[in-house]
Amino acid sequence: MTLYNYFRSSTSYRIRIALHLKNLKFDYKAIHLLSNGGEQNSAEYRKLNPIGGLPTLSDDGKVISQSVAILEYLDEAFPDTYQLRPADIFLRAKVRQVCENVNSDIHPLQNLKVMQYLEKTHGYSQEDKNRWAQMWSEKGFAAIEKIIESTAKNFCFGNEITAADLFVVPQIFAAARFGFDISRFETLNRINENCIKHEAFIKAHPYRQIDTPAELKLS
Ligand SMILES: N[C@@H](CCC(=O)N[C@@H](CS)C(=O)NCC(=O)O)C(=O)O
């Protein structure tokens, strides 16, 4: 398998955690989101993913984008590996709900192309962009905190890692870059602390990848 991804991309981080949890080997193909106007916008990459987002997974020539679709594929194509979606139908829908809270309600509003648009078209400064991202992070995480209040133990849903944790933790990392502090959300803060100690999350961390710049690199 080849994962087209970028060290700092939170959506890429989701899939790296999944691959490590599942012990599936993959080739890391770095796509730089800023170099030369963004390699995700190159004609070559857009042949793989016409919308130009990361990540994209190629499994023996079968090409899939959108992290939700990739996670579903990995669970179903490799049923003997760690399963990220609970068997119980209601619980599975609740996990998906939290994934979508991140994927649809938080991430797109602070995606690179949106931030670039706000800067170029509306003259947003870095401070304006931080305020924008903090506002949407606040609304989205407040909702997730409520949703998982009754389900969370060590992780979003009980004591097993689910797909929900794979969406929440990278989004907390992304939000921190815009100055958003998760610590006032007690449950989310606890889950984040638990997850980042887990081996799969450690291996998948943005600052431990082959394309992580030397000045950011963690051991
Ligand atoms: N919903 C998509 C989002 C993909 C996406 O847009 N990823 C970001 C990186 S975190 C990206 O590639 N942005 C490129 C851009 O904004 O130009 C997914 O879950 O895979």
The biggest beta sheet is recorded as: 4 strands, mixed
**For the largest beta sheet, what order do the strands appear in spatially?**
2-1-3-4
**What's the level 1 CATH class of the largest domain?**
Mainly Alpha
**Straight-line N-to-C gap:** 25 Å
Mean pLDDT: 97
Strand content: 5-15%
Number of domains: 2
CATH architecture of the largest domain, by name, is Up-down Bundle
- Could you tell me which ligands this complex binds, including any ions or cofactors? glutathione
Q: Count every helix, treating DSSP H or I runs of 4 or more residues as helices.
A: 9
What is the SS-derived class?
alpha+beta
| Strand segment tally | 4
Structure notes:
This protein is of the alpha+beta class and 219 residues long. It folds into two domains: 2-82, Glutaredoxin, CATH 3.40.30; 89-202, Glutathione S-transferase Yfyf (Class Pi), Chain A, domain 2 (Up-down Bundle). Helix content is 50%, strand content 7%. It has a four-stranded mixed beta sheet with strand order 2-1-3-4, covered by helices on one side. Helix 1 (10-21) links the parallel strand 1 and strand 2. The longest helix has 23 residues, at 126-148. The site of glutathione has 15 residues, from helix 1 and helix 5.
